[in-house]
Write a structure and sequence with these properties.
about 200 residues; mainly alpha; 2 domains; two-stranded antiparallel sheet; 10 helices; about 50% helix; elongated
């Protein structure tokens, strides 16, 4: 029933239909919500009544009544993008470079911030730089494609939600850093010798 009502939250990843909707339920996703890192049971919303069998407590019924009054349109769908890719996007969002640009402080940026965003260091080789750039660009393209026409999608493992404009902002951050640090990038590109 959870899968029928919320296929993106409780669907089996890796088995999507042509619309990007999970075709099969994943019972482990339900148990993760109950017993995972932020379990409903520890919040006092459920009590165990048998092997893998739970019942709502009075507090759980009150919370369910509260949640059922929330319009579903305001809740972002779960993102069907692979967990490791969502984690990589979260890392880009959490980088100092992205944070400084979001806060309107481009003058505070350093090349070390840019390197942190890209996952390299100032002494990296050309092949490492090309590899990281290609990876970031492919990651952001895949993220935009997976969002489709949804305004926002929530990460499966965490409370963050992202929209197409957030991903485009990350792409603009990448492009801005490439432009701003073009001389430093040229130095790295010149390091073609292997050690």
């Amino acid at each position: 029933m959870a899968w029928h009502r919320f296929p993106h939250a409780f669907g089996l990843s890796g088995h999507m239909d042509q619309h990007g909707t999970p075709m099969y339920p994943d019972s482990n996703r339900v148990y993760m919500e109950i017993m995972g890192s932020k379990p409903l049971r520890k919040q006092g919303l459920l009590r165990k009544v048998g092997s893998k069998l739970y019942a709502l407590t009075d507090a759980g019924r009150q919370r369910a009544a509260m949640v059922s009054e929330t319009p579903q349109e305001t809740l972002p769908e779960k993102w069907s993008l692979a967990r490791e890719k969502i984690d990589q996007i979260r890392r880009l969002f959490d980088s100092r470079a992205a944070a400084k640009l979001r806060e309107g402080q481009p003058e505070e940026l350093s090349f070390f911030d840019a390197c942190g965003f890209w996952g390299i260091n100032p002494r990296s080789r050309a092949k490492d730089l090309w590899s990281r750039f290609a990876h970031i660009e492919a990651l952001l393209d895949a993220a935009i494609e997976s969002l489709g026409d949804r305004d926002r999608a929530a990460s499966r493992h965490g409370s963050s939600s992202y929209g197409v404009e957030d991903i485009r902002t990350l792409r603009r951050t990448h492009d801005f850093l490439c432009d701003r640090y073009s001389r430093e990038i040229a130095v790295i590109k010149a390091r073609t010798d292997e050690r």
